[in-house]
Every structure is written in C-alpha cells, then in structure tokens.
Amino acid sequence: MQQGTLMRKVKSKSWKKQRYFKLQEDCMTIWYQSKRTGKTESAFSISDVETVREGHQSEVLQSVAEEFPPERCFTIVFYGRRGNLDLVAGSAEEAQCWVQGLRQLIEPRSFPLTFALVSRTWIRDWFQKADKNKDGRMNFKEVQHLLKMMNVDMNEDHALRLFQDADKSESGTLEGEEFVLFYKALTQREEVLSLFQEYSEDGKKLTLLELVDFLREEQLEDEGTEELAMGLIDKYEPSETARARHVLSADGFLMYLCSLEGSIFNPQHRGLWQDMSQPLCHYFISSSHNTYLIEDQIRGHSSIEGYIRALKRGCRCLEVDCWDGPNGEPMVYHGHTFTSKIPFREVVSTLGKTSWGNSSSPLPSMGTSPPSSHPQRYGQSTAVQGISALPETVQDPRAQGPWRHWVAQGASLSPTPQELKHKILLKGKKIGRLEDTLDGPGDEAPDVSDDDNGAEAEEERRRAKVRGTQHGSALQKDKETLAQALSDCVIYCKNVPFRGFQEARSHSRPSEISSLSEAKARKLIRDEGNEFVRHNAWQLTRIYPSGMRTDSSNYSPQEMWNVGCQIVALNFQTAGMEMDLCDGLFSQNGCCGYVLKPPFMRDKETLFNPSDPSSREGPGPITLTIQVISGQQLPKVANSKEGAIIDPLVRVEIYGVPADQAHQETKYIENNGFNPRWDETLQFQLHVPELALVRFVVEDYDKTSRNDFVGQFTLAFANIKPGYRHIHLLSKDGTSIPPSSLFVHIRITE
C-alpha cells in the first residue's frame, strides 16, 4: 500500500477536504495529515475497520457521483456507531491500492493470522495509551495505570513481580519485546494450561495420539479425527520444529481453542449447508421494516445507508415505501410523517449495486405504497422504469421457467431460492392473479355435484357468488388505481388482506402474501396456533411492528418464528435483544438470509402447536449443560468513570417455544474484567430444540441499579458445537469486540 497518498475526505456535497493518508510501519495504524495546516494526528486503527466498500456505496459518495467517478471512490466502514469515512483518491490505481491493501489487513487468509493480528494490535494500542510521556518506554507507575485501563484490579506486589520479570534490561522500564513478555505473563491462561496438561503426558506437548484423544473425548469429533488433528497442528502450531514432529505445544493448543474450529459456532454451518430447493414458504427470511429509516418513525432521517447496512447484515427482505414526489418522481419515506425523503431512483440504484454482495438468494423487496392513485399519472410509470433498469431481477410471468412450471402444477408448489437466485421479487397490489396473466381469468364458481347435500350446495353457491362479486369489485378498484405495467412487476408476492385461515385455505394462492401487525399475529398464535403453523407451511406471512413503536423499538421475533412466519420485519437500526436474535438465527447458512424451517413446520397437515411441545413429532427433550469457565479481556462499560473496573457476570438465555423460555446466570466476579473465573454449571431442558436460540450475555453487576451491558453472542441451538469452546463476544450493535471472549464447556444429552 502506498504511504502519504493525497485524497479527498468527503462529508457532504460541499465539504471536501484534502488529506495526506499514510499507513504506519506497524501496519496497524492509518495516520492523516492536513494539506493546509500540516498537522498530523492518528486517524484510526486497522482493528477498528469492519469493511471497505468500493464505488459510490454511501449516501455521501452518491451525492458527488457526477463529480467523481466510482473507480476513484471508496468508503471505510468502522465497527460500532462510528461514522463512515468517505474518500476520493487521485486515480483509480491509487484507490485500488488502498482498497486491496486495507482488505488484506482486515481480512487475513486464516483465522490464526486474524487472532495474531488482533493480539498484536491490541498490545500496541494499550502501550500507546499507557505511555503518558510518549518516550516509548513504560515505568511501573504507567503499568499500574495501564492495568486499571485494562479492567484489571491486581495486587501491587504481584504486578511489580510481573514487571520485574519482564524487565530483562533491568532499566526500570519496559520497552518493545519486554512489554510483550509482560503482556504474555499477564494473559497466562491457567484453565487452558490445566486442560492441556490433563491430556499431555509430559505437560509440554500433545502428541498426535494425545490430541486425537482430546478431540474424541472432549470435542466429540468422531469422523476423520486423525486427519483433523494433523490439520490443526499444521494450521495452529507456531513452531516449525513441533510441526515437523506432529506435536502441538501449549501455545498452539490455545491458538486452536481461540480459532474458528474452537468456536462454539459449528464451522460446518457457517457456509451454505441447508437445502435451498424447498419452496420459499419453507424458509425463515431475514427481513427489515421501513429499511430506509435510520432513526425514529416520525421525524427520522431516511437514507440509502439504511439499505446498504441491512443488505451487508444479510437482510433479504427490504421495504420501499413509494409516494408521489415533485415532477412525477416517486419519493421514498414514511408516509404521513415528518421523516426526510429520498428519490426512488437512488434506492433502485443502490439495490442494483449492493443486493448480491453477501448473498445470491432472492430479494423480496417490499413496495407497500405505489406512487399515485391513478395510472395515468407519472409516478407509477417512473417507478416501473426504475424497476426495469435493475439487471437480472424481476422475472416476467409470461416467460418460460419456474413460474410457468409452478402455475402448471396447479399452484400447489412455489418457486425455490435456488430457482430464484439473483432475482428481486416485488410485493404489492396486483390486478387479478398470476394464473389470469398467463391463462386468462380464473376464480370460477366451484362445480357442485348432484350428490352434495342440497342445502349445503345452495349455501356454497351463494358464498361463491358473493366471493365473485367481491373479487370483481376489488379487481375493478385495482384497475382504477394501479397501472398495468406496475401490476405486472408483482408476481410471486401479491399482497392480499387476511380474512382467516379457512378463507385462505379455500381461496388463496401460494403466490399471495398477507401482512399482519404484531398484535394481530399474537392473537392468532394464542387462539389458533396450529392453524397458523399449517398456513405458513404453504403461504408467506409478513409480520410488522406496531404503529405505536414510533421510537423504532422492536418486538421479539421468536414468538412469530415459533408458528413459522417467514418474513418477520424488524427495525434494523435499533440494537437490542430482538436484533441479537435475528442476527443469531441468520448467522448460519452462509449468512444468505434464508434458514430452512424444521420438517414439522413444512407439513401442511402438521399437528405442531408451539404452546404444546408434545405435539412435535420426533425425539423427546434434550438437556443442554453449559459450564461457564472464564472470560478474557472484557471491555469496559461505555462512559464509565476513569479507573472503574467491571464486576462481570454471565447470563445464559434460551428463546424458543414458551416451555423452553428460560435464563440462568453466574455469580459476579468483583473487580476483574480482564480474566474473570466463574467455573459455574448451568443446565436447561429443551423440548423443541429445533426452534431454540441461545444468547450469552455479559453484564457489569450493579447492586443499586440495573446491570450494564458488556457484550453478547447469540446463535441457534442447531449450530452449537459441543466441547471446550470460546465464545467471541459482540457489542450492542452486533459488531465484533476483539479480543473479548468467554471460555465454556458444552454438553448435549438426550
């Protein structure tokens, strides 16, 4: 990567300042220098960078798109709530140099390198913070201050002993490698060393056979264990000599336990591991509500950044509320409120550029309010032009392919994610039905045979006539308010009102979808739980937040997933338990935004009801046993007082069917956020493990007020890997907070 590159830092269309950016020799810090003042200051650490976007993939850079070509533009996205850094390089070559260089630094080829980079960066960052006089050395007083910053309340005599052991030069200060020695002594993992020595005959190394024993007995690896052990040694053993002898040192053992293979999340489930050839209604789909909003629902800011963030997070169902704008141009905003507006064309442009970055799975894009109430006005035709500009997206129903095959099957099946890769589906109003578009009007009155009971037959004829009248009236109204071209864009997700499960079963199609408020959904769950599950086995249902949630708060998605609702829309801009559950469920299967429902939720005749776990077909309850052993380098609570040290506790929460909802917590450890030890065992019984999510939460205990959030990690029970595992914690925003983690032991028994 070049150093001292002159680039423009862009904050708005009118604010564009030139800065010299350069990568420091440690390859961990980016510094910039003002061209005008020559003042140099630290800009950011590589460990703060989440990703790098190329081109006009931010609202700011889109506003200057006419001035600067996309090949010169890129955006640096940071973890947490820190704002993006939008930059314009002097040439396309310089931009690529920075983009590729940054990506290599933040996305190393293997997890061990990531772990090593994080550790190195973390050590350097702390050294710089504690080195008050900036002389490149640290005296004991500065070390004591450092321990406070690192959440460590250590006995002064013990701290001095570690300091003197690391001071090899006997200068009374630590510098360079001496500080690294001090850090390693500080982070000695006694619980890991004890586990290592339990399987090591000489206490210094694990032979290949000893490692195989550990993998089989503790990690429950039962296939290809010897090959796995060889692979782990080659991948994580830092000593070339040890690798040549096929042994694993204590350092290599720790590296393995801190790696992806040592994570609680089953590495085989990180990629695309589920069957993607089932009908769409057989999947849970990651879905957002009012995606364009990044703040509240009444006066909040509308931004394409909302779409970019949601898509990067794995969301596959977006909401695009279109309303008439000036000069016939549709605008996207929350109708009848004071939220700001963005042009529909900008949203379409963003979807075209970013929809397939993380996933090729279909994208049901919601357009709930078509612009204009009359088809002759310009808004709808302009919207159609924008939609048509999207490449390889909306499928024409008259074309050959999965649509015609599906209709030929009598609409008993529906297209699959595999068939609809790289397609955008629009949900909205439609004139008539899909069958009408292909083969002419349908929905004829049923043929009642002579064998039917006369009274029942007459009643059915009367109902059919009423339905026909209602259908004709609705069809005429749609024709008056909806342009045919816009109607033709709506294929699989025709929006229809929900009038009960019996009505839907008799007269609805898999190509139709109903939207329900959270309150309506809860009532149906309470009163007709099994019918709701059956309905969702053949038709899509969308759930949206109550209109009273003007602060963009969220409801729990779990109760909606319990009855198989596929599109459970959440406010992605609001952090909390609800979004943790969403991220936890969809972090599997390649983060494609689709998760296959359990078999008993894909059967239209299922007996399953979430309020009665015994209605589930399959084996009996299982027991989940979690030994919470230790924590490592837990972060301080935001805005805490200087010198304050957390008193951490761990709470394990189970979300699932009502019978499985539970939580237990450990005791709190006083004044130790650096390496707390709990060694406590928590146990849960799960009746429907296929629907369970497990959330690990670390909090700072407070006896006088509510505990403060420290970190969390959530995953589906199906993705848990038993054995000794590390849990790498996430922030309230769902972003990584390296190197903070928990060390646990997991057992699953029937």
Instruction: Tell me roughly what share of residues is in helical segments.
Output: 25-40%
What is the average per-residue confidence, as pLDDT, rounded to a whole number? 84
Strand content range: 15-25%
CATH-level-4 superfamily name of the largest domain: Phosphatidylinositol (PI) phosphodiesterase
- Overall, the morphology is globular
Find the CATH topology of the largest domain: TIM Barrel
Number of helices in the DSSP assignment: 22
Structural class: alpha+beta
Query: Low-confidence parts, pLDDT < 50 over ≥5 residues?
Result: 108-118, 372-377, 440-457
Give the radius of gyration: 29 Å
Number of strands: 29
Identify the CATH class of the largest domain.
Answer: Alpha Beta
Question: Biggest β-sheet: count, sense, barrel?
Answer: 9 strands, mixed
Secondary-structure arrangement, i.e. CATH architecture of the largest domain: Alpha-Beta Barrel
Q: Can you tell me the number of structural domains?
A: 5
